[in-house]
Amino acid sequence: MLDVKDAEARAASLVEAARKAGADAADVLYIGDAATEVQVRLGELEDVQRSEGEEIGLRFFLGKRSASVSSSDLSEEALSALVERAAAMAREAPEDDSAGLAPEDRLLRGAGVDVDGDDGRDPSPADLKERALAAEAAARSIEGITNSEGAALSAGRSVIALATSHGFCRGYRTSGYGASASVIAGIGSTMQRDYATHNVRHLEDLDAPEAIGRRAGERALARLNPVRVPSGAMPVVFDPRVGGSLIGHMLGAISGPSVARKTSFLLGREGEQVFAKGIVIRDDPHRPRGLRSKPFDGEGMATSPSNLVEDGRLTGWLLDSASARQLGREPTGHSTRGIGGPPGAGATNVDLLPGTVSKGDLIRDIKRGLYVTELIGHGVNPVTGDYSRGASGFLIEDGEITASVAEITIAGNLIEMFMALTPAGDLEHRRAVNVPTVRIEGMTVAGA
């Protein structure tokens, strides 16, 4: 894996080679990764994995025609062949009026925001193993835990560099750490499984392994002896670890490519009330140590914090250059990028800002409802917003979380669900999409 300066130089030289080969414009993305993961189970080391790799991708433009090619071989000969292949493919590609680089005046110039995404550490496999063993041991020490699916610790580093024929050439480095534990409570047909995870940019921010293990064990134990739930309409409360998926559906619906293809259930609702008044959903690419923080987007445009929903109103779309051209708009700095293919559009660190009531107050007046901690399946129609997913969690009775429930289905329509959503005040920054506990009125519940 190259360091940042060498990665920038390699990307810039490939752009220059593309221009010499006749490209009207070009951009190059380099991504290098190195990661170590240690897995343990039942107190023994189960697996150690180490992966290292690097790839480089070239977009080659001839007028309105373009081609994307990539290689994991960064030798001079391989990159020369890559340019030749890209030129040949671009000559045969269909014309696309939306194709092209990001507007030159929108590119990041000057010093970018320091998002503190790399801690510079490289923990040894022995250190990761010790942490994983501690997490699993803490989970298994809880009375009633009968088996383990294991625990894992991972550590990784990445280098990203982007160069364009507009003269942009920048790179940055990130680190990432993850911990997980998954255990089983009960015996025979009564067994229940649950887990706990945590992912961070800096190792010092990672939860103590004992805390992760205890959380996994306590969650599994609480799921024992599920009861049946009568079918009907009732309030559904989403735990923060699953509630972010609701906002994820909104993010997919406001991405420029979805809007341009007219495959979004929020089509035509820009500027309209889509959540209750007071609701704010914020995207912050500059959050220090954020899981998706970055100084520039996938096309080199400057990033900036923005409210995607303001006082319940949808403020606009997430636009990369191509979707912006298709919609007659300006790009918003939300381009996402992989090595192969053209950019897409997406958000970074997203928060549904907290409400004014506690979690306890949020459920206090619920006579009968559900508290959902796990969602199963992908029963969401992105065009209509129809929503139907398997779920498990706990029954809410007379304002209290009581017995475990499993094998239920919750259904509704996302447009109606968003308008009926109320957030609690317990927001924590633990994920890329963060929400407090949220309550949605009148969802349809089908019991087992």
From TrEMBL:
Pfam families membership: PmbA_TldD_1st, PmbA_TldD_2nd, PmbA_TldD_3rd
Domain Metalloprotease TldD/E central per the UniProt entry, residue ranges: 119-224
Superkingdom assignment: Bacteria
Gene Ontology biological process terms in this record: proteolysis
Gene3D superfamilies: PmbA/TldD superfamily (3.30.2290.10)
GO cellular component: a single term: cytosol
Metalloprotease TldD/E N-terminal domain mapped to chain residues: 26-90
Domain Metalloprotease TldD/E C-terminal: 231-447
Family statement: Belongs to the peptidase U62 family.
Name by which UniProt lists this protein: Modulator protein
UniProt lineage: Bacteria, Pseudomonadati, Pseudomonadota, Alphaproteobacteria, Sphingomonadales
